[in-house]
Amino acid sequence: MGPQPVDTGRDDLGTVMVLTAEALAELPWEELRGIEGATHKVLWQSGTVVIGLIQVDPGRTKPEHTHHGAHHHMFITRGSCVMLGQRVDAGSYVYVPPGVPHAVDDVGPEGVEFFYTYRPLELPRHHDDSDHHAHPV
Questions:
Q1: By 3-state DSSP, what share of the chain in percent is helix, strand and coil, each rounded to 5?
Q2: What distance lies between CA 86 and its chain's CA centroid?
Q3: For residue range 95-129, what is the model confidence (pLDDT) as tens digits?
Q4: Pairing of strands 86-89, 70-83
Q5: Are 43 and 30 in contact (CB under 8 A)?
Q6: Whether the predicted pLDDT of 82 surpasses 80
Q7: Where exactly are the structural domains of the chain?
Q8: Strand partners, 62
Q9: Domain 27-120 belongs to what topology?
Q10: Which ranges constitute the DSSP H helices of 2-133?
Q11: In degrees to the nearest 10, what's the CA dihedral of 10, 21, 38, 16?
């Protein structure tokens, strides 16, 4: 199993955020879990639900890993790489269901950058008719 996002206690839920291109460019890239040549920026987080950017340098990989309990969506914003056996470049979208191994391989000469969401599975709630405050899922 690959590294999983950590609940840092950050809770941006309900917080209005507007990041202009300039403000986003000023946010520092941080090392991504010790993976050489891979960095990220967390844009929004509530518990273990994370939305952000990842970039991988040319000639590097983000090793194969599996999120057993989360959905993973990725939109390539710059560069190119191979994901799930297919070359993707800027404008491409990739969805990885829970339990599917995936990696970032064969990164192009400009590197690759992608917007991602990581959303853990929601466990079904047991319906209790006495709970009138329950929200529909």
A1: 5, 45, 55
A2: 19
A3: 999 999 999 999 999 999 999 999 988 766 554 44
A4: antiparallel
A5: no
A6: yes
A7: 27-120
A8: 104
A9: Jelly Rolls (2.60.120)
A10: 21-26
A11: 10
This prediction has a pTM of: 0.81
Long-range contacts of 98-101 (CB under 8 A, 24+ apart): 98/67, 98/68, 98/69, 98/70, 98/71, 99/66, 99/67, 99/68, 100/66, 101/64, 101/65, 101/66
Cα 127 to Cα 132: distance, rounded to the nearest angstrom: 10
Is 52 within 8 Å of 73 (Cβ atoms)? no
Report for 43-47, 66-70, 80-84: range of highest mean pLDDT? 80-84
**Chain centroid offset of residue 65 CA:** 13
Lookup: tokens for 83? 């994901």
Long-range pairs, 43-49, Cβ under 8 A, ≥24 = 43/17, 43/19, 44/12, 44/17, 45/8, 45/10, 45/11, 45/12, 46/10, 46/11, 46/12, 46/13, 47/7, 47/11, 48/4, 48/5, 48/6, 48/7, 48/118, 48/120, 49/117, 49/118, 49/119, 49/120
pLDDT tens-digit series, residues 5-23: 666 678 988 889 999 999 9
